[in-house]
Design brief:
Blueprint (H helix, E strand, L loop, with lengths): L1 H19 L20 E3 L9 E11 L5 H15 L3 E9 L7 E4 L6 E2 H4 L7 H5 L23 E10 L2
Parallel strand pairs: 1-3
Antiparallel strand pairs: 2-4, 2-5, 2-6, 3-6
Length: 165
């Protein structure tokens, strides 16, 4: 009986050790669930977002090394459409300290809010954002542009918005 108990304890301890060594997954999206949309409009300035739009997701979008502006636009728009966004508000872009491949890490908000009334800037995910590398020029001219290429992995600030028709 004692040997069986010790064996069981060893197996349980080994199981915890193996599970604890696995990669941590990015926070899954747990916000408002909207039906998928067919188009997403990009915006680079919060004051240009229509008054009817509410922010329902804050995120950092990691892009792998070697992407171009067309790939970045396609992957972020695809994620936004899947979440039901009508618009995506884009912030700063930095070189990522590590190449995580394509990854979207969500940071809330706890409750949806009107962008024009309550937008407080790019404060979410600051601990992750502050660890990244140099600033990268990525804006309206680079969005969707296949000639704008990036040799290093990137991380991009974004917010998804739902707009009343």
């Amino acid at each position: 009986m004692g040997r069986n108990v010790r064996s069981l304890l060893c197996v349980v301890a080994l199981l915890f050790l193996v599970v604890g060594c696995g990669d941590k997954e990015a926070p899954m999206y747990q916000g408002v669930q909207y039906p998928a949309t067919s188009t997403v409009i990009p915006s680079f300035q919060a004051d240009q977002v229509p008054v009817s739009c509410s922010v329902f997701a804050h995120l950092l979008a990691w892009q792998p090394a070697g992407v171009n502006g067309q790939t970045i636009a396609r992957t972020i728009e695809q994620e936004a459409r899947q979440r039901g966004a009508d618009m995506v508000l884009l912030g700063g872009t930095r070189e990522a300290e590590e190449d995580k491949g394509l990854e979207f890490v969500y940071y809330g908000p706890a409750n949806e809010y009107k962008c024009r009334d309550k937008w407080c800037g790019w404060k979410f995910g600051y601990a992750d954002w502050a660890r990244q590398g140099k600033w990268v020029s990525f804006g309206f001219k680079e969005w969707g542009n296949s000639d704008a290429t990036y040799a290093t992995p990137l991380v991009i600030q974004a917010a998804f918005l739902k707009c009343q028709k």
